[in-house]
């Protein structure tokens, strides 16, 4: 994915905010269907990822050091399926409740996770697993697409 030129960031932000302001204008049935799908998919993804971690001999608790490097299950598609699932579930809740502020909150949380939490976790994984982790990084995007 190409880098976004800084002058384009503001119009993108305005477009996203405008779209979010219209979430409550969607027909309620469509809004609840979209929200339910995002909520269920997000919770399912996070749960699948947690079970995959446990089956690999490591805890999904981010406060505990990883005991194993996991690259199976949902970790084949993204290095952060639990965070992606949580953010998707939050976006689903925003659609269900017609509260665009929850989508904005998910976007802010995603940026915070990306810049502070995941960056720290990746440094720790690189220190602990070295070349094996570098191989995972080379083949699996942080989210769903390469930057």
Automatic annotation (TrEMBL):
It comes from the Bacteria. Keywords: Membrane, Methyltransferase, Transferase, Transmembrane, Transmembrane helix. The chain crosses the membrane at residues 6-23, 35-53, 91-113. Its main location: membrane. GO terms for biological process: methylation. One of its GO terms (cellular component) is endomembrane system. GO terms for molecular function: methyltransferase activity. InterPro entries: Phopholipid_MeTrfase. It is a multi-pass membrane protein. It is found in: Endomembrane system. PANTHER family: PROTEIN-S ISOPRENYLCYSTEINE O-METHYLTRANSFERASE, PROTEIN-S-ISOPRENYLCYSTEINE O-METHYLTRANSFERASE. This is Isoprenylcysteine carboxyl methyltransferase. It comes from Acidimicrobium ferrooxidans (strain DSM 10331 / JCM 15462 / NBRC 103882 / ICP).
């Amino acid at each position: 994915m190409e880098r976004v030129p800084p002058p384009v960031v503001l119009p993108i932000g305005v477009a996203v905010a405008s779209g979010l302001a219209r979430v409550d204008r969607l027909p309620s049935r469509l809004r609840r269907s979209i929200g339910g799908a995002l909520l269920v998919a997000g919770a399912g993804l996070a749960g699948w990822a947690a079970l995959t971690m446990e089956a690999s001999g490591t805890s999904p608790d981010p406060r505990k050091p990883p005991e194993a490097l996991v690259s199976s299950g949902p970790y084949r598609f993204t290095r952060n399926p639990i965070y992606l699932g949580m953010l998707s579930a939050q976006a689903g809740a925003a659609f269900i409740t017609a509260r665009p502020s929850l989508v904005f909150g998910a976007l802010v949380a995603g940026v915070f996770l990306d810049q502070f939490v995941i960056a720290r976790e990746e440094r720790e994984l690189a220190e602990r697993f070295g070349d094996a982790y570098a191989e995972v990084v080379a083949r699996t995007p942080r989210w769903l697409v390469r930057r």
